[in-house]
Amino acid sequence: HRHLLGIEGLSAADITGLLDLGEEFVALNRQIEKKQASLRGRTQINMFFEVSTRTQASFELAGKRLGADVMNMSASSSSMRKGETLIDTAMTLNAMHPDILVVRHHASGAVELLASKLDCSVINAGDGAHEHPTQALLDALTIRRNKGRIEGLLVVICGDILHSRVARSNILLLNTMGARVRVVGPSTLMPPGIERMGVEVAHDMREGLADADIVMMLRLQRERMNGSFVPSVSEYFNYWGLDTKKLAYAKKDALVMHPGPMNRGVEIDSIVADGAQSLIREQVEMGVAIRMAVLEALSRNLPNA
Ligand code: CP
Q1: Do the beta carbons of residue 285 and residue 26 sit within 8 Å?
Q2: What SUPFAM superfamilies does UniProt report for this protein, alphabetically (predicted)?
Q3: Vertex 112, ends 42 and 93: CA angle to 5°?
Q4: pLDDT at residue 1, as a whole number
Q5: CB of 259 shorter than 6 A to ligand 1
Q6: pLDDT digits over 3-44, tens only?
């Protein structure tokens, strides 16, 4: 592959290959000396039109650990503030001959559009409510390390499914890898026809979490709600927030995940987020390793490689 625009289009073998490569980088990242040379001489530009902590920081570290020259560009300090279009901004950067562009944008499809116009490899770091492929890959690596497999597990994704690119990418990946996926959340935050993605749908947490091996919580994305349905925080937490009482509906050895950023006391209680069943910190560690794996895999297809 030349780009990574989504999980859609990746085979189980592609995904397993990236997870295996990611596993090698987990070991490397725990060493004192972390520097590799596979991207030496290459230029990576991170173009973020939406805020980010984890994705941007880990793509920067990942590129640097593989020896690339990495430049970070944020939309708030770019000439888009003066009216330059997305395409013109991207073509301007393209003229500087980057090898890899990592893009986050608030519009679904924006990253694919850029990939069709640019000469370099493009990686989707999250586009609107469409896909966030590296998040799903790092989640899969975290699950595989802790459960020893993905196939046959019941993964329950909870909360604001409607606005979540993380949910979409995870559903695609988990289905491809043979897991069972269930989504649970308020009907107002459930995309119409979600069943067609091959998931079970539940309408309360007791029913939804029954037999879960993995409980994946999502942030309530109030910034994407445009006033249509903005639930009150206390009511939301009461029905859908993961606390110890609701977690007890899942299997005894269920593990808890959250892509971050977390809103404590909204979708997840601190006792659970910081508890023994939580994988949230490990997800962040896997984020660096999996982004190194993606960069390394794409670098093998760069011109003159
Ligand atoms: N999970 C995730 O994408 O986090 P950031 O928005 O901080 O990158």
Answers
A1: yes
A2: Aspartate/ornithine carbamoyltransferase
A3: 40
A4: 85
A5: yes
A6: 999 999 999 999 999 999 999 999 999 999 999 999 999 999
